[in-house]
Give the backbone structure.
Amino acid sequence: MTPLLEARGLSYAYTGGAPAVRNVSLEVPPASMIAIIGANGSGKSTFLRMLAGLYRPAAGEVLLDGRPFATVPPRLRAREIAYMPQTAAAAFPFPALDVVLSGRTPHLPRFHLEGARDREIGMEALEAAGAAHLAARPVTALSAGERQMVALARALAQQPRLLLLDEPSSALDLKHRAGIMRALARLRAARGLSIVMITHDLQLTGSLFDRILALRGGETAACGRPDEVLRSELLADVYGEPNVRAQRMGDQTLVWIEA
Amino acid sequence: MKSTPAPAPLGRRLAVSLSILAAFLLASVAIALVTGRQRVDFSAILSDPFSRALFFRLRLPRVLMGVLIGASLSLSGAALQALFRNPLADPFTLGVSGGGALGASAALALGWSAHFFGVPILFLAGFGGALAAVVLVRVIARTGAVMLPGALLLSGVVVNLISAAAVLTIQYVADPNSALRILRWMIGSLDVVGLTPIWQMLAVLAPAWIALIALSRDLHLIAIDDETAATLGVDVRRVETAVHLLSALIVGVTVAMGGAIGFVGLIVPHAVRLMFGEDLRIVLPGSLLLGGAFLVLADALARTVLPSGELPVGAITGLLGGPAFLWLLRRRQRYALI
């Protein structure tokens, strides 16, 4: 079966800098959940941005349904792939619902305005992200966590087959974090949504994700099932922290720092 | 924490807001046409040559000029604010007007009053100056991939200062006749005789307005978040280039004719936002309409506020716009900028 998205040997260097990502590959089958982990500056976000089409790889290629990215028009690509950046910017006080409705753009011809059906989809997306109560609030007045929920709702309103999330819950409290993870698992089961997520929540990755890609210094340190990747030596190496411990307990993995 | 009801569907908001603003524009034009030191005797327009000349050679062209320039500056202000994701951006604060004025005054001092393929060279010079300014500001303000909002406006101020100094220098060395016209630009005025310049301007401006408004949705998405806009299928680079070119064209031509009239492009889009919400698909055409009305009314005020003689309209917009800018600056402290 053709993977939904396939990254083959991607490399990227920022202008005037050392390579940020070197020869990293990843296959995203339909209805899969994949976590990307690694220390700060290990190239996770850069890699994800190449998958989102924001950066053009210096080497390697990204295939969507087996077709090279460059041959898929951006608007059609946007119907299949939604990307949620790490921090959602807000320069103007747009109501949260307007931000969410911007996700409908790839489904609408240029001079068409969002209709009643789009608003329904937008409200459903806000509900799934646990942010229905924020619909009319200006995004400039929201907290970082609330903005993350709105940004996730925008990505969901896009009704993509693949969600690319850059630390979607970094500013969320425990309850909302759990809520979002449940919502994503539900969408995968119901709609066959695939999810690639950068996260520092190693605890979450053990039970929810099919695969984990661990990056170290821009290169693949490991890629495999959670029980293969979440091991003490490997994590100690990936994070450069010798006291990391990982322990499998049933289908959960506990990760902690030994004092 | 106040909870406002979810906004009405966009289609209805668009229809309602644009109808209101169009009606307001027509009313403003009507008011401005009957306002002035010389009373126009409308019943005598057809029979009395003096009334006819007053109306068709002076009053009407001046009011239409106000509509064209106010609409142009406000529309490009709204587009630049969205593109730079900065509520304090406008042709004036970004130095685009200054660049245009420099180009136009250089052309005038050099005696280039001819046409080039039917386009007045003054327009081309204004466009060239404005484009140079917008590119310069962009280059200065951009460091790597990050655009610092403060750096943008500071660059604009610096470009404006340099332009103003250069215009002064040109004015100083130019012959007295050109010098007077250049002085007029520096303040901004809508003096115009006859309808020919109006048609010339409209021929250039109308297509540029339409092209800019056609980019409303892209600008809307960029204003929300430029990176997300790119993943939604917007070619951000291409929109940037188009908006740079179109606003330089619009601002360059209006400045070549009316001078650097300040702050119109800043306050009008914000007024539209306050009335009808943030959606750029409303703000862009709305600014076009309200901008025309605003400048026409400001000019009517400028023509009549003094017991004798008249003020340049730039003085009125500056006196209104400066405080409005400071108010926006204060309000902006509340905007969380990331």
In short: The CA atoms of residues 57 and 165 of chain A lie 19 Å apart. Chain A touches chain B through 45 residues (CB under 8 Å). Chain A has a mean pLDDT of 91.
